[in-house]
Amino acid sequence: MGIYKYINELYKKPKANLNELWKKRLIEWRRSSSIVKLEKPTRIDKARSLGYKAKKGFFVVRVRVKRGGRQRPSLHGAGRRSKTQRRKKILGKSYKWIAEERASKNFKNCEVLNSYEIAKDGLYYWFEVILMDRVIVRTYPDYGWVGDSKGRAFRGKTSAGKKSRGLRNKGKGAEKLRPSLRAHSGKGK
Fold first, then answer.
1. What are the tens digits of pLDDT across the range 134-144?
2. In this structure, is residue 163 part of a structural domain?
3. Mean of pLDDT over the chain
4. How many domains, the chain?
5. Separation of alpha carbons 128 and 99, rounded Å
6. DSSP calls for 142-165
7. To which H or E segment does residue 136 belong?
């Protein structure tokens, strides 16, 4: 087995395999801000498999997203009692997609390439989002498309976005997913 396979095995059960280091990391990540630019990825095996390269223009950002459901905003004394109920709101997006959007909003000159989950506890999810500088990366061979696709994360063009939109399904049963959910009045999902 190569080194990346060993790293992959470690992260299958990180709490058991990395015990003290894992606890120390989570404590540190909870205290740090919600979006942190990193020098190198925490999980090099996962980052490399998703397209990360250790060259100019590519970098990784750790994003913290709060877990749990979302609630509708409360109506302060407006309308009838029956209309002021705050039922649980079901998100149409995955937490990964939300993390990608937040990273993209923070680094406006960059595009999201991909992302992966690195940890979770009772309160938060942590994702590492791979970003690329639009100006530098489009000069590389095979990356010319970066200059043409602005705001990939917001338009659901990343892997997490496509999965949330249901675009991993094709053929029978997926007729209302393309070209978009809005085009079919949200009947697809």
1. 999 999 999 98
2. no
3. 89
4. 1
5. 9
6. T-GGGGT-TTTTTTT-SHHHHHHT
7. helix 134-137
Greater pLDDT, 147 or 104: 104
pLDDT tens-digit series, residues 37-95: 999 999 999 999 999 999 999 999 999 999 987 777 666 666 666 666 666 666 788 99
How far from 122 is each of 43, 64, 90, 108, CA to CA, in Å?
21, 13, 19, 31
Sheet arrangement for strand 58-66:
35-38, 58-66, 124-133, 110-120
What are phi and psi for residue 156, nearest 5 degrees? Answer: 70, 35
Per-residue pLDDT band for 181 (boundaries 50, 70, 90) equals confident
Q: Is residue 181 part of a domain?
A: no
For residue 156, being part of any structural domain is answered with: no
Tell me the residue type at 72.
Answer: R
| The predicted structure's pLDDT at residue 71 | 73
| Residue 70 tokens, joined | 């979302």
On the CB side of 183, CA atoms within 13 Å amount to 7
Q: Record the tokens describing residue 99, joined without a space.
A: 């993390």
Where residue 65 sits, what CATH number does that domain have?
A: 3.40.1120.10
Q: Is 174 inside a domain boundary?
A: no
Q: CA dihedral defined by 92, 97, 101, 102, rounded to 10 degrees?
A: 100
**Domain around 20:** 3-149
